[in-house]
Amino acid sequence: MTRVRNLRVRPDLLYVASGWSTLVTDVRGRIGGTDPQGFFAGNTRVLSRERITVDGREPVPFATGNVRGHAQLSYAELGAGEELPSRAAYLLTERFVGPGLRTRLTVVSYSQQPLRFALGIRVEADFADTSEAEAGHRLQVGEVGAGWDPTAGELRLTYLRDDLDRAVAVRIRADTPVAYDDGTITVDLAVPPRGSASIDLLVEPIFDGSRLPAAPATFAEPDDSAARARARLVGELADLSSSNFDVTAAWRCATHDLAVLPLGEPAGPAAPIAGLPIYQEIFGRDTMTASWQALLAGPTMLADSLRLNARHLGQRLDDWRDEEPGKPLHEARQGPVSVLGLNPFSRYYGDWSTAPDFLVFLGQYLAWTGDLDTVRELLPTARRALAWIERYGDPDGDGFLEYHCRSRAGLKNQGWKDSDTAIVDERGQVVPNPIATSELQAYWYAALRHAAAVFTLTGHPARGAALLARARALRRRFHRAYWLPERGCYAMALGPDKQPVRSTNSNDGHLLTTGIVPVAAAARVADRLLAPDMFSGWGVRTLSADHPAYNPFSYHRGSVWPVEAGTIGLGLARYGCWAQLHRLAEGMFAAAALFEDHRLPEVLSGLPRDPAHPHPGVYPNSCSPQAWSASAIIALVQALLALRPAAPLRTIFIDPHLPEWLPDLRLEGVRVGGATVDLTVRRRRGGRTSVSTRGDRLVVVRRAPRQAISRRR
Question: What's the predicted TM-score (pTM) here?
């Protein structure tokens, strides 16, 4: 197969971010007025165009790159650098993203003579929503007023709408006079022989009368909430090394991306955003899922993600927002479209998976950390999430969770696959609501079991026992209703007529992960997931390639999601399906190796891995980096180790099964409870593995997962 390397998901763009702010430029670092370029604060584009000229000409950068996660640097030549006598000079453009944007323009001279340059800066703002800039279509418009304050050297651009208070101040910090005329700010720079001269361009959003400061001019981390969260994660997340370069590189990229994506929200500063450049917002289930999958690397993200979700539970019945008391938030945006009420996403609750996910991940957090104080702090939220499921999650009382959408502008599908056409019957027709998707029942089963452990360990054993009994009953009921023995898989959903939706899809991998699948059926389910119509060679397709609705470049009808690979990998390990796990992991690490920095994008296409397709391509609007694509790498490593923590017992259970292509790996800084250990695993002849640890006292028990042991018998 032809070797492909260093694919870029959005090859025409660069973007850097911090907290709620994102800078999107072309590959030369310019903001040219083309969607989706610009500087965005709070999902609002406060800088839509920027034109920098030197002596009337626009320099063309010849080298541009991002520095850390929050800064960018580019170089442009001013004049003929090779001519003699030398008048060589270069423009350095340094950008620093914080609540506001700072751009430092520095002219560096290598001439023996003093040089003078006239810098011109023209800026525009359109106050577009992030979603509008991404789509290239405006839902809300308004005039923009401009006012120049010569004393402050500041241009203020104001959105002239009575129903939205948004503006941006653009000011110059320079040692020389600043002038303004006809929309252009000008500064004359005198550059001494073999010296330099700089100005700073500060872009400071003003929302509802509050001014957001520009970032400091430093490539080191500034001192704000998002930066402090990034620094904490850099110090916490475990390192991995292996003789397999692709696995090492993919892990390093994944932990780097997770460390630069925290939102900086006061309730949970280390909780990651979903992805860039689109999903810079609070995203309930995405934030928690990424943090859960990344637990092998560190627990702080999940602690903060749980706290963030706890702060945003529904308070009332509100059809527009699909809100109900105790229902966790799906997403929250700050852009004009949402603030103006053109959509409900300033605070939207249209998701059925977040409530059971919260309970599952609270239990997982306890298993990894033994942190009863935090769990007790979050126990009221667990009670409210349980209460929401019991009152609203099963409207017809048939014992299964089924979603419906009440908001006229909400999401039709409110399970894991939330695009409008994700749930289709075997004829390729969209299934109408209400729908009881299979993965929701599995999440509910796992939620009951994890909630049972949480309540038992916090002093409520009777409630824990009752929840376990409900989980066992649900498991039996689910298999009877959803199992399709002639297909060796489960129904995608039950439709509004309570009949199975017989479309082969990736949900079965989620079922394995939760343990709802009976041991006797697990091997068939695993084999079906890895059959040619489902496994592309890179990953598991969301929908079978044989299905009439299959589209390899769709969002959920045949594409491949790395986040699912992480979840499915953990499920395969749970049942001891090692051959299938090795195929899945190899495909995902091979896919990562195709992309720049080994960074998995949000969604791969479902095209087959064959000589005609040397790389899989991506869903056209994929984000990269994407938090739960990064976390999938960590989850796959955990699956290969079959590592299960028991922090209250100061113990980890492990059953490593390394494939031939991964002869060894070393993890440094794995945290379980109060212990931090380094873990080294080596593959021996015949596939057996050795395990050694170093660090704090922690019991390491080699034991296969319970379902895998039962299957061997």
Answer: 0.96
